[in-house]
Amino acid sequence: MNAPFPIRTECPPGACTCRREELLADPNADLSVLRLTREEEKRLVARLESVTSLADLRHLGGRLQAQLGIVLTITPSAHGVRTLRGINIQLEDQPGLCRKTKQAIPAAIRRAMEATPEIAYALLDEQDLLGGS
Asked: CA-CA 20 to 30 A from 102: which of 12, 61, 81, 133?
């Protein structure tokens, strides 16, 4: 299948669980997630690492969903948050989303939160975990 835009090259056989072939075989499938080439992924990770506020992070999450169909969910753990590991950062599973991308995006967001702790504080305050009014 030929897409009207450059698509991500396939991973080596057996190295990924992205189900890219399944996505390409379906004539009615949304191929937008395949727009995230390796070069674009590097740009995205750099952009996520440079986030300075929760509003900016939410904006990027909305752009991910609108442009690539990637659903990003960031929530505090129900068991409490003592470190950044207590914040759940998940990408919804979908065909065409590479395993490495599913690891790189949350890692970049964690690095941004480490560099700018105000993002994590705002997220926790949004859930009223810091006792705000």
From this structure: 81
**What is the spatial distance between Cα 113 and Cα 130, in angstroms, rounded to a whole number?**
16
Q: Is the pLDDT of residue 37 over 80?
A: yes
Global confidence as pTM:
0.85
Domain ranges of the chain: 20-126
Reply yes or no on whether the pLDDT at 79 is more than 70: no
Structure tokens at 20: 């890219």
Q: Which long-range contacts (CB under 8 A, 24 or more apart) does 13-22 make?
A: 15/99, 16/98, 16/99, 16/100, 17/99, 18/95, 18/96, 18/97, 18/98, 18/99, 19/95, 19/96, 20/95, 20/96, 22/95
